[in-house]
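Q: Could you write out the predicted structure for this multi-component system? I'm mainly interested in how the pieces pack against one another.
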Amino acid sequence: MRSVGFKLGLAIMAVASVVSAGSTSSKVVTHNSATETTGVVRDARFSASAIEFIGCLVRSNGLVLCIAKSAGDVYRSCSTTAAGFATVAAGIGPNTLITMNYNAAGTCTALEAYNTSIYLD
Amino acid sequence: MSGRVIRGLALGSFLLATGVAVGWWGRAPGSPRSETASLRPLAIEDARRRAEAVNHVSVQAVDTSGIQEAVRKAVSEELARARDEAVLEDEAELTAAEPDADTLLQVHSAHQYIETAIRSGRWEAKDAEHIRTLGHELSGEQYQELIRPLVIAINAGTIRPNLEGLPF
């Protein structure tokens, strides 16, 4: 009986180690400054607050709109038709860490789509 | 003896014939035959030069005109194509840059719509839908300019979207 319990304990430990394998990270929507916002798409979706979101819309006319809402109910958005943004925005997925930079005129000045296993849960 | 006579007659006949022939060809200057004979080399040479000149000119003319025609045709086609492309680009730019009167009216109306919303501080789902629908008629730049006051107002917190999802 003790032997069975010991084996069961080992099995549970093995499963736990497999589940937690690899490095993970979580980033909810955060407005780092008046001109920068970051957040992981999946983390915003499954955050404790029910109002967070972050993402970008790409239109066929070349317009890119990015918008984020933090847990504090603060919106930040920007738009651009500059070359390169649509390609980056189209690469956004569930495990993407988005970093959007913008100016006072609401124009996106930079957009990063960081796709990595770290943000896969 | 008779053999000698025969050979002598034959030789005499030959000399006679030769003399007649030489006399005929050696007539005095002024005779038609003599003029023709003296002019023949010059005429032949002249004709040859003319023929060469004619041939040379005609060959050159054929080649040059052919090349000129080919170049003219290629240039014309290229110009026509460039003109067509320029027209298409101009039309595309005009289409993108200058919406029709109805769209201009709608854009003007939308600007007022957004300004009114900003003053009220409210932006709801129906507002977002209204602007999005209009955006389909506009270029990316036009839509960006249309929503710019709204984006600035949202970022500044002077308007608080009351909806789920994107506000524009």
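A: Regarding packing and overall arrangement: The longest helix of chain A spans residues 2-19.
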